[in-house]
């Protein structure tokens, strides 16, 4: 089905008139975030605040998003966002946990951030699984455990998360934390690329150009460490390449 925000707005408005908390939350979200709709951020925020007064986790989550997202004429309010995400987390709303984790990490509380990523991962949030996997892979804020990292990348990838697919594919390609499996690695990196992941797209294109002969493996993996993004990413992947060489 194609998106039709105007029709969605109509049905949400009807639900709002009937007192549906879900409709109020969705309606507020549409006014704040929908691209194909004339936005009314103030109206959207009013509706989300109204829904949060009903102790509704989805409304807390949306209101948290509204406060942590940069918008013209509106400052980011991390503290207010954290308060709303915390309320949603108390009701085990999965998607809020990776935001809480990111807030903690940005405020130099990595151990607390890891706890949020872990909780979100256990509740099935793909972004939390990916973020927790990255932390375990590099040993940042938590003891390094590449086997556990590969497991969480796998879980994230199974849910269709593009970054999870790429990193699970990279682990399969390098044999880090899991058995090497070139065919599976290519499949995962390809799926990530199809979702628009630039790193995966560049890496997969290079693999296609060079072929998958064993004698090309060093070049294939090294390209993934060198050509896929900004300077920080290049440095990170040089470390990944070194880790592969040591395996």
Question: What can you see in these coordinates?
Answer:
Pfam families: Sel1 (PF08238). Belongs to the sel-1 family. InterPro entries: Sel1-like, Sel1_AlgK, TPR-like_helical_dom_sf. This protein has 247 residues and is an all-alpha fold. It has a domain at 162-247. The protein is 72% helix and 0% strand. Helix 1 (5-17) packs antiparallel against helix 2, helix 2 (21-33) runs antiparallel to helix 3 (41-52) and helix 9 packs across helix 10. The longest helix is centred in the last third of the chain and has 16 residues, at 231-246. It starts with a helix and ends with a helix. Residues 223-239 have low confidence and may be disordered.
Layout: helices, strands, pairs:
Elements: H1 5-17, H2 21-33, H3 41-52, H4 57-68, H5 78-90, H6 96-106, H7 110-122, H8 126-138, H9 146-158, H10 162-174, H11 182-194, H12 198-210, H13 217-226, H14 231-246
Which structural class matches the secondary elements?
Answer: mainly alpha
How much of the sequence lies in strands comes to under 5%
- How does the overall form come out from the CA principal axes? globular
> In terms of per-residue confidence, which ranges show pLDDT below 50 for 5 or more consecutive residues?
223-239
Largest sheet: none
Tell me, rounded to a whole number, the average pLDDT: 84
**Number of DSSP helices?**
14
Q: Helix and strand succession?
A: HHHHHHHHHHHHHH
**Number of beta-strand segments:** 0
Radius of gyration: 21 Å
For the termini, the CA-CA separation is 47 Å
Helix fraction bin: over 70%
């Amino acid at each position: 089905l194609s998106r039709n925000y105007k029709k969605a707005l109509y049905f949400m408005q009807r639900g709002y008139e009937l007192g549906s908390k879900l409709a109020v939350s969705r309606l507020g979200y549409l006014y704040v975030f929908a691209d194909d709709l004339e936005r009314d951020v103030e109206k959207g925020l009013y509706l989300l605040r109204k829904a949060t007064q009903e102790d509704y986790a989805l409304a807390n989550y949306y209101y948290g998003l509204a406060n942590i997202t940069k918008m013209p004429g509106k400052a980011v309010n991390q503290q207010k966002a954290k308060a709303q995400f915390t309320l949603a987390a108390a009701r085990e709303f999965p998607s809020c946990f990776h935001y809480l984790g990111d807030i903690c990490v940005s405020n130099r509380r990595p151990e607390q951030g890891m706890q949020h990523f872990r909780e979100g991962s256990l509740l099935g949030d793909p972004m939390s699984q990916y973020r927790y996997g990255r932390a375990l892979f590099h040993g940042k804020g938590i003891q390094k455990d590449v086997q556990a990292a590969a497991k969480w990348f796998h879980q994230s990838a199974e849910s269709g998360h593009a970054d999870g697919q790429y990193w699970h594919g990279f682990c399969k390609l390098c044999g880090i934390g899991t058995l090497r499996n070139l065919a599976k690695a290519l499949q995962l990196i390809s799926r990530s690329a199809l979702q628009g992941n630039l790193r995966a797209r560049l890496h997969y294109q290079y693999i296609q150009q060079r072929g998958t002969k064993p004698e090309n493996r060093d070049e294939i993996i090294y390209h993934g460490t060198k050509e896929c993004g900004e300077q920080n990413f290049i440095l990170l992947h040089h470390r990944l390449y070194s880790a592969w060489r040591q395996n």
